[in-house]
Amino acid sequence: MSKKLKQIFSMLLAMTMVTGLLGGCAGSSGSVDTITDIKDTGAQNAAATSTYEPYPETVTYTIGLRVRADVAYPEGSTDTAEESAYTRFMKSKLNIQNKNAFEAADDNDYNQKVSMAITSGDIPDIMNVTYDDFKELAENDMLEDLTEAYNNCASDLMKEIYASNDNRSLDMATIDGKLYAIPTTAISSGPEMLWLRGDWMDKLGLEEPKTLEDIENIVKAFVKQDPGENGAGKTVGIPLCVDGDTNYIYGNYSGAYKANNIFTSFGAYPEQWVEGKDGTAVYGSVQPEMKQGLQVLADWYKEGVIDQQLAVRTYDDIKALVTDGKCGSYFCGWWAPYDLAGSYELNPDVEWRAYILPTGSDNKVTMWSGNPNQNYFVVRKGFEHPELLVKAKSITLDYNQGDAAYTDESAECKEYLDYVAHGYGVEVIGGFDWYDAAARAYQHISEAIDGTRNPDEMNAYEHSLYESCTKYLEAVNNKEKPEKANWLDYNARMVASKLMNDTEVNIVQPVFFSQTDSMSLMWESLRTLERTTILKIVTNELSVDEFDAFAEEWMNAGGQQITEEVNEAIN
């Protein structure tokens, strides 16, 4: 081709390209749509792979909710669970909107509706379920894999909160290396404390307890010397509750009137599946280490150190004894002051002191941890926006456990915080808390009182506690009677929580929190056997030596089979 022809060809080609481009801009809608599609796709990708980027178009998701009959909204409000400060806040932040697949009046109703949804195979886009339901859904391939969504969209704060319990919560929600739920963490209850009437101790000239023998001598003095002036024989020793499923002599740390620390001081872990000496899972209630703790309680019962009406006293009966000043000793967690409101009202000069004991052979208190999770938020397999759950949870955490609320002046934020503060409505996708939330709150409140932390940089709940504790101190300094609420907060958050924060504790991690196939058939009868026998031993109806026969009977009555199933489940 000649040089001249090449030049002409190049000019024609350039003119053709320009004409095509101009034609596309002027009359070809396809090119505009392509550009728009690219923009929309970019916005969608940004929302799907980041924590805070809102969706370009409103994403509506279905969910099942507990909506109790007593749910309150601000006076004059027409809000509902689908239209409230919670939903408006989330729409302003992420452009998401819930549509309730079902609403339940209480836990039983909710669990039934979850079961029906699972059975039918028609579950909401997002649902809050138990561990057993979570496992069933995962095993039936009904859940979205949230691994990528978590890695892309979980806020730094969410990751820090999970890390506060060594990511055990996430481990429980992970199957074959994939994350299938965003679990709601459980807060550590902390070690059990022995609460004693300090004013009674001072009146009798008693020293602080350090050993089991000290505890025995103090309670005997309370019962026999009657510092509360109740009359001869009317002061009760340490109460232990056997009323109902969750209230028993031992068990989880989130209840009162238990003797867990007595057993852990001897290396026993009743009602817990723990790692045995051979590395396999064993049920703590039937291990030989139980006998020493039982012997202590049986001796204390015989000596009147333990409430003689143990077998028939209800939880409310015990609380009334403590409130009325008929009992000056009991086991409970750091939150005990919140159960002592009546005691303070009747006697503003009452002084309750907390101690963490007894210690084991290493001079440390041992406790077992609880289930790391309360429940599991899951996403239906096939839902187009599985990351929505992670994003919504992250926002909730940032505004409740973090400091995002301090710089957000939006109307939606202010309304949201007002709902949180007053307990209005139903939060659709709530948050969760640090494993060591109670100790952490003490640290922050203490620093604010000392002037080393700016109170305005605490989260809203901690700030309210700081204000309450400050009012308590002001009243004391002015020789005035503190308000009841301030007395409760100070003694729980600054006295008991300080003790918990400052005490070195050995923590034993149970290895199993679920249910095996045989448990559904045998567990109730096994538990009845256990609790009936243990109560008889404590009240001296049976000798502690009978424990070995009980343990053997428990294993033969189905315990051995269940133990094997537990080990299969965790291996």
Automatic annotation (TrEMBL):
Pfam families assigned to the protein according to its UniProt record, in alphabetical order: SBP_bac_8
Keyword terms of this UniProt record: Cell membrane, Lipoprotein, Membrane, Palmitate, Signal
Alphabetized PROSITE patterns for the sequence: PROKAR_LIPOPROTEIN
UniProt keyword Signal, yes or no: yes
Signal peptide: 1-22
Name used for this protein in its record: Extracellular solute-binding protein
Species name: Kineothrix sedimenti
Lineage: Bacteria, Bacillati, Bacillota, Clostridia, Lachnospirales
